[in-house]
Structures are given as structure tokens and as C-alpha cells.
From TrEMBL:
<feature type="domain" description="PilZ">
    <location>
        <begin position="116"/>
        <end position="223"/>
    </location>
</feature>
<dbReference type="InterPro" id="IPR009875">
    <property type="entry name" value="PilZ_domain"/>
</dbReference>
<protein>
    <submittedName>
        <fullName>PilZ domain-containing protein</fullName>
    </submittedName>
</protein>
<dbReference type="GO" id="GO:0035438">
    <property type="term" value="F:cyclic-di-GMP binding"/>
</dbReference>
<dbReference type="Pfam" id="PF07238">
    <property type="entry name" value="PilZ"/>
</dbReference>
Length: 234
């Protein structure tokens, strides 16, 4: 997977637990990797935010695991569509039985990194609170520009007819990304491509600057929309 967006670092226990719970709900395997080379894929089965730990199902029926899995550094990687998550397993690990089956119980990681591929997720145009980009105008209120899609790496804009088309490579500054009714994030964009389509001009941009809190809000917003779209009837 080609990752073009910078990694988003999550360090709040509640946010980390929410993403691990997503792995449980979607039955996503987690690949555990030792520095010396051995790997093992385990299925997460339960997250306990209140106890600050989570369980991964061990293969077989006996309560045993390779020594490298119980002590020493272990790197964990999981993929969900275009999103990759990775983190280091804390030292607090033990073997337990859950529902009569062997499992590895691990403390929640202190940091979880998310990487998202450009344009892996598209916002539905019919969304009630469709993201908009606010562009400053001299002597007037900001222009609210419609968006086609939004990801952790960038955004595609429905360029307004009243504005001159930007050139690829141009920087767009002084902007705000409006997500829903509550969040506005200051952003700087760089134009990647300009396409004149049948009834509109589509301008694809990448984020050049995005404040850390803005990255967090964007990640949570995208996750909420992804959850909502999965629940829509097909």
C-alpha cells in the first residue's frame, strides 16, 4: 500500500481503545513482528478500556505462545481498507483464557499511528453536513467551496466558476476546512491537478499544513463517516 499522507499519532487511551475495538468488530487480523524476523497473525477478540488492556486469540487450544511474543520488543501492524495502523506492544503481556480459548492479554499501546492512502475514502455528496472549504475574499464573506472527496492526505474541490482556475503546484493559503456544524480547521493546500469535466472544474489538492488538533479532528470525522456509510443500505 502506498502511503502518501503523514502518519497521525494517537496517544489518548480512549481514542486508541476505539480504534482497537474497530479491529475487533471487523475481525481484522493483527500482524505481530519481532525484530529478529518471526511473525504471527492474531485475531483481536476483546478490548477493555476500563482495565486498559485487550485480548488477541492465540492459535491452537493450549495456553502457550512463542517466547518472543511474551517478552522483548514486538511491532504490530493492521490494515483496514486504505488505512494502516501500527504500534508497539507494551511490556505488560500475559497468557489468559477467554471463553475457554487461549489468548494473549496486552496493555493498550501508549501510541497508535494511522496512515491513510490518498483518496481511499470519499465523502458521499448527499451527506447532510458535506465538508466545505472556506476561501477568503476581500471585502466579502468567505466563499464556501463544495468538495468531492476528503481523505487524511488531501481534498478534491468543486472549483467555483467565479474564481480563476489555479495552476498545479500553486499554494492555497488562508483557508478553513468546515466539517459538519462544529469543526473548522485552518489549512494550507497545494494543487496537484486541475480537471475540466462536463459540468464543473475539479481541483485535487494535498494538505501542506494541518495543525495536530486538526489532524485528530479530521481522522475522527473520517472514521465517523466511514461508520455511517457502512450502515447505509446498499
Amino acid at each position: 500500500m502506498t502511503l502518501t499522507a503523514p502518519a497521525l499519532s494517537l496517544q489518548h487511551p480512549r481514542e486508541i481503545a476505539a480504534w482497537l475495538q474497530e479491529l475487533v468488530e471487523r475481525e481484522t487480523l493483527v500482524r505481530l513482528i519481532a525484530p529478529s524476523g518471526p511473525t504471527l497473525e492474531l485475531l483481536p477478540v476483546q478490548v477493555r478500556p476500563e482495565l486498559h488492556n485487550w485480548d488477541l486469540r492465540l492459535p491452537g487450544l493450549t495456553l502457550s505462545a512463542p517466547p518472543w511474543l511474551l517478552q522483548g520488543p514486538v511491532h504490530a501492524v493492521a490494515h483496514q481498507g486504505g488505512v494502516q495502523m501500527d504500534f508497539e506492544l507494551p511490556a505488560e503481556r500475559s497468557l489468559v483464557e477467554t471463553g475457554g480459548l487461549p489468548a494473549l492479554r496486552v496493555a493498550l499501546p501508549s501510541e497508535l499511528r494511522r496512515h491513510q492512502r490518498r483518496q481511499t475514502f470519499r465523502v458521499q455528496p448527499a451527506s447532510l453536513h458535506h465538508p466545505r472549504l472556506l476561501m477568503p475574499r476581500v471585502g466579502a464573506l468567505p466563499l464556501r467551496v463544495r468538495t468531492f472527496d476528503l481523505s487524511a492526505g488531501g481534498i478534491a474541490l468543486h472549483w467555483p466558476d467565479s474564481c480563476e482556475k489555479p495552476a498545479p503546484g500553486a499554494l492555497l493559503t488562508g483557508l478553513e476546512l468546515e466539517m459538519g456544524l462544529e469543526h473548522r480547521i485552518p489549512v494550507t493546500l497545494q494543487v496537484q491537478h486541475v480537471r475540466v469535466e462536463r459540468e464543473h472544474v475539479r481541483v485535487g489538492c494535498t494538505f501542506v499544513t494541518l495543525p495536530p488538533e486538526g489532524e485528530r479532528q479530521l481522522a475522527l470525522y473520517l472514521n465517523q463517516l466511514q461508520r455511517r456509510q457502512r450502515n447505509l443500505p446498499r
